[in-house]
């Protein structure tokens, strides 16, 4: 199948290795992956700040770049949710096609490709953090406040990785505090929330913290560096691609 790779701005600028791992993983699973060179910001920062109307140029550009693919895949739950909920254009048929066929990486692997096994090997102790957009918007895992059978697509994929020891924090579905513009306007609260998340992972003596969202990992990494911690952050694509 023909897959358009949607790479969020902060991955492109700060964590390009995540995009590379995503491409390699998808190609290993027999996808034809194409990276549209003219893609830019999806418009989420404007929408998060209450100015979704200012993202019309982003919407138009996104449709022009991604309307001709079977699927659009991104290693970012928050940006995918934004596209699903906010993408509109004069060419509404094209926008609708994208909204229905854009997927966060882990849901694409399980729901579309139906992956049942991986050749991955990652001999480390890993703490799992699922971002709020992926969890509560895309439903890649269950929420503790709901009376329902628990599930987690990221955990299911990580369980396929050889020699990986998965560790879940006690409050496994709590926000890390990033929240896009929230971390800018409510800095102190955001940092406290991040420290609370890190404390639980530290108690589990993890070597890495992984997530489906680089934005969450970027926030946690900043706190870890300031605390001079040995714990590192790694996107789930990098683990699933590790052999």
From TrEMBL:
Q: Which InterPro entries match?
A: Cys_rich_dom
GO MF, one term, reads: oxidoreductase activity
Superkingdom of the source? Bacteria
Domain Cysteine-rich, chain residue ranges per copy: 3-84, 126-220
- One Pfam family assigned to this protein is CCG
**Gene Ontology cellular component list:** cytosol
Please give the name of this protein: (Fe-S)-binding protein
């Amino acid at each position: 199948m023909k897959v358009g790779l949607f790479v969020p701005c902060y991955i492109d600028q700060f964590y390009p290795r995540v995009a590379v791992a995503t491409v390699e993983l998808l190609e290993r699973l027999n996808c034809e992956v194409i990276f549209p060179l003219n893609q830019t910001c999806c418009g989420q920062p404007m929408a998060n700040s209450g100015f979704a109307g200012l993202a019309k140029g982003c919407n138009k550009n996104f449709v022009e770049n991604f309307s001709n693919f079977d699927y659009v895949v991104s290693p970012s739950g928050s940006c995918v949710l934004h596209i699903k909920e906010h993408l509109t254009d004069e060419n509404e048929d094209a926008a609708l096609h994208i909204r229905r066929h854009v997927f966060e990486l882990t849901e694409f692997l399980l729901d579309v490709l139906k992956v049942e096994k991986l050749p991955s090997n990652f001999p480390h102790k890993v703490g799992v953090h699922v971002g709020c957009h992926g969890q509560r918007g895309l439903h890649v895992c269950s929420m503790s406040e709901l009376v329902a059978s628990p599930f987690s697509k990221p955990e299911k994929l990580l369980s396929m990785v050889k020699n990986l020891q998965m560790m879940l924090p006690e409050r496994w579905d709590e926000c890390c505090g990033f929240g896009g513009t929230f971390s800018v306007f409510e800095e102190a609260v955001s940092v406290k929330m991040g420290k609370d998340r890190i404390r639980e992972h530290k108690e589990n003596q993890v070597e890495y913290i992984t997530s489906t969202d680089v934005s969450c990992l970027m926030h946690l990494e900043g706190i870890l560096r300031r605390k001079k911690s040995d714990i590192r952050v790694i996107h789930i694509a990098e683990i699933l691609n590790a052999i």
